[in-house]
Amino acid sequence: MFNIFKKTLQKTIDSIRTVSPKRREKIDRDEIEEILISCDVTYELVEKIVDSLPEVVTRSRLDNELNNIFRGESFYDRLELKSVDAKPCVEIIIGVNGAGKTTTIAKLATMYKNEGKKVILGAGDTFRAAAIEQLKAWSEKIGVPIVYTKQGHDPSAVAYDTICSAISRNCTNVIIDTAGRLHNQTNLKNELEKIIRVCSKAFEGSPHRKYLVLDGTQGNSAIEQAKIFHQLLKVDGIIITKLDGTSKGGALFSIVDELRLPIAYIGTGEGAEDFSKFDQKAYIDSILDAVFIAENQEE
Ligand SMILES: Nc1nc2c(ncn2[C@@H]2O[C@H](COP(=O)(O)OP(=O)(O)O)[C@@H](O)[C@H]2O)c(=O)[nH]1
Ligand SMILES: [Mg+2]
């Protein structure tokens, strides 16, 4: 079966196979430690995982440990995105510049459109003219309407207009872009809080989801930045972009472990369809397949 996770994680898999070239049934704990570090799992989490492993590790044992990271509060819970029944469902996309927000919006919109939903975009990154143009170009390309304004105008007004327009056009989904200038945290916080406040004025209960977009090529160094955003705004879910272009694909374990937030989607390329729901099993299996062979099987 064609496996998008395996394909997207190829660089990560290559990196694992550099430290552990031969796949085996059982692997020494020390080697597991090296493998996890090689794909950018944080040292703290590697230690936590390795400490609970026996000296010789089977696939199912490591599988267990890795799956545990995605547990919610209780043993049987999983970190999951809350479901939204509201119509329209309003989502805002936050994250630093260059993380992949605008591209991700085009991807999300394409996915919704393919599911038969009626989408509208709000060009809420009014800081740079190029950001508005970029989202406009996407909107034409994927055939989804957009609400925008001139550079420098109030992004919360765009959010308001987009939601009102969505309601009058009977749209099911609103996706709002934002600017991500993290070097001025107070400004960013005020601006994003205002957008959120204004959303709820336009449509009570919205925004229903706040997605934080993280650049996958940053690996676990994106965690600190993610914590700041989460503290400021209470993020609902994470989208990891550019997973196709990095050997740091193991960082997702640390991101989840530290933030205790679900990973909703991954970016697998630059095109509008290069996007996938995060699949915990496919993700973990791709990594385990790089390390282990099935029992009684020759490499
Ligand atoms: N390879 C790859 N490139 C991506 C992905 N997502 C975004 N990009 C690229 O990253 C760059 C920045 O994306 P953009 O959406 O403008 O980021 P923003 O500043 O956060 O809005 C662009 O060149 C995108 O094509 C992805 O999943 N894979
Ligand atoms: Mg952008």
Task: Please tell me about this protein's structure.
By secondary structure, this protein is an alpha/beta fold. It folds into two domains: 4-77 and 284-291; 89-278, P-loop containing nucleotide triphosphate hydrolases (Rossmann fold). Helix content is 46%, strand content 14%. The protein has twelve helices and ten strands. The chain has helices at residues 4-8, 10-19, 29-38, 43-51, 59-68, 101-114, 129-142, 155-169, 185-202, 223-233, 251-259, 280-291; strands spanning 26-28, 56-58, 89-94, 119-122, 146-147, 173-176, 209-215, 237-241, 263-267, 275-277. It has an eight-stranded mixed β-sheet with strand order 5-4-6-3-7-8-9-10, sandwiched between helices. α6 runs parallel beside α7 (129-142). The radius of gyration is 20 Å and the shape is elongated. The model has no long low-confidence stretch (mean pLDDT 94). Guanosine-5'-diphosphate binds at residues 95, 97-103, 134, 180, 241-242, 244-245, 267-270, 274.
